[in-house]
Amino acid sequence: MNLIFLGAPGAGKGTHAAVLAKKLDIPAISTGDIIREALKSGTEMGLKAKVYADAGKLVPDEIVIGIIRERLSKADCKKGFILDGFPRTIPQAEALDKMVRIDKVVELDTSEAVILKRLSGRRVCSKCGATYNVDTMPSKVAGICDKCAGTLIQRKDDMPETVKERLKVYHTQTEPLVGFYRKQGKLTVVDGGKELAATQSDILKALEV
Tens digits of per-residue pLDDT, 29-51? Predict the structure, then answer.
């Protein structure tokens, strides 16, 4: 099953994609992660992306699409995949449609108030990148990562003012994808504001898995 998870920053896409990926035994593919991996591993597209990243510029669509194409061609995607963070725009979605068949698109519909609370409470390990939340998923020792004992930090992206700007970008650039996939008959909307287990149950029902 080839899936896309849509939703604003903080809607829970990455969390739910990771849980569902284990259940379905398919990879959850985060665009940010694979771009970082491509930069590190020095693939052809990764090297092209590095030129822009090193200059502090956004990586152009054609390069991001090339990196996605490289990732989806790997053996672990033969049974399916979950895309988290791609596509972000209608042109990216149109390019993806030419590349691969998408079966279902899950939109995690989450209020701004819930998102602001979630992201302002999010903490990330400075060493291994593990994610916690001071309200819903705290570490055993405050400020210390359970996995590697690294220091937990709040990313600049998760500061309330930055989150509001990220939400504006989402509403302008990415929200139109809801209509795009609704027209294709692939969209299913799930309440992303519930507790983790309840939302995951709703996703499974919507996908009939």
Answer: 988 788 778 777 777 888 888 88
Global pTM reads: 0.83
Reply yes or no on whether the pLDDT at 53 is more than 80: no
From the candidates 74, 78, 127, 155, which is the catalytic residue? 155
- The residue annotated as part of the active site, out of 13, 71, 104, 118, is 13
36: annotated active-site residue: no
Catalytic residue among 36, 88, 117, 186: 88
What's the gap between Cα 72 and its chain centre? 16
Is residue 123 annotated as part of the catalytic site, yes or no?
no
For the question of residue 117 being annotated catalytic, the response is no
Which domain CATH number covers 183? 3.40.50.300
Region 23-27: what's the mean pLDDT? 95
**Residues 74-79, mean pLDDT to the nearest whole number:** 95
Residue 185 resides in a domain: yes
